[in-house]
Amino acid sequence: MNDYELRKFVAPEFVFGYGAAGLAGRHARNLGASRCLVVSDQGVAAAGHTDAVARTLRDEGIACATFLGVSENPRDTEVMQGSEVFRAEGCDAIVAVGGGSPMDCAKGIGIVVANGGHILDYEGVDAIPKPMPPLVCVPTTAGSSADVSQFAIIRDTPRRVKIAIVSKANVPDVALVDPLTTLTKPRELTAATGLDALTHAVEAYASNAHSPVTDMFALEAVRGIGSALFDALDDLGNRDARARMALGSMNAGLAFSNAILGAVHALSHSLGGLLDLPHGECNALLLPFVVRRNYVAAPQRYRRVAEALGVADALAAPDDEVRDALFARLGAMRRRAGFDKGLSQYGVTRDQLAELARLAQEDPCLSTNPVPLDARELEQLYAEAF
After folding, report:
1. What is the mean pLDDT of residues 29-53?
2. Helix, strand and coil in the chain, % to nearest 5
3. Residue 181 · residue 21 · CB < 8 Å
4. CA-CA-CA-CA torsion for 182, 188, 301, 322, nearest 10 degrees?
5. Rounded to an integer, what distance in angstroms lies between the CA atom of residue 151 and that of residue 304?
6. Residue 187 CB: number of other CB atoms within 10 A?
7. C-alpha distances in Å from residue 176, one per residue of 284, 304, 382
8. Which end of the chain is least crowded, N or C, by CB within 10 Å?
């Protein structure tokens, strides 16, 4: 690929730093909002973040309604319920507060209220004809990066698959990235979302749609997350580590929103859709096996990933040694984070692997994997992670 061929880069306006969440009301007002639908979930509400953001809206004279009916893997039914609340309450803007699930659900709600029909009508790339209402995102996890991306991932409940809706229309108007909101995350969620962010960065850097701009964000994200994740896990109240993780997640999101992803996400979306498994944990499990399989197609890129993660002699050792050392490093990170189960321990059976591979082969993220993979090879990757 010519590094300097034409590439576009899409990103929202974003504010990063301690206290950014307190600016939600001001930015909603600047976008012309008079009544916002605040989309969140029960866990985020219990932590106090939903009400805190709603107060900033009311302080600016903006009325608000709240929708908390969002699952860990947001469902098409939840999007449709939220769109009915938006209409019934007479809302004209959306504020999403939470991790990837509320933010993706909020995007889906905006798509439906602007365009009509059902959210499943918009599966695929650039299938949204009309822009959604103003959207402000306040992330409370450092991992999904939905606040800066053009992706929305929604579970199609009839088919039991996760669909990807990819469009510039999905990019929020404003992202308010406040590391302080992540201090309430328990260790397991901190680990899962952190490894999700690392996967975003690694896949974006190796993607066949990468560019010099996405490379800059992706590699910096690998370095930042590699150094910050375990500082945060060892001391959940470490503000500096939380800030570095929030920055790493944002950088990874800016990279993958434009370079797209790869086989890890295709495989994870299939798992999460069919079996409703946690997305970050699926990514953490599958990443080492996909990197090992992909290495031959982009050895120099994976060498730089290995170097960023502190693998010794990553730029000088023979390819097979670097490949194996990177595989070991990623596996060790997963286990240190607390995820040491294989697919079988999540309830996956060998009889399901062929169907999971078939669904993964249909995922748009597979198109930017550095090496083409057929259904048999995808099934083999599942088997290696079993």
Report:
1. 98
2. 60, 10, 30
3. yes
4. 140
5. 26
6. 13
7. 26, 30, 37
8. N
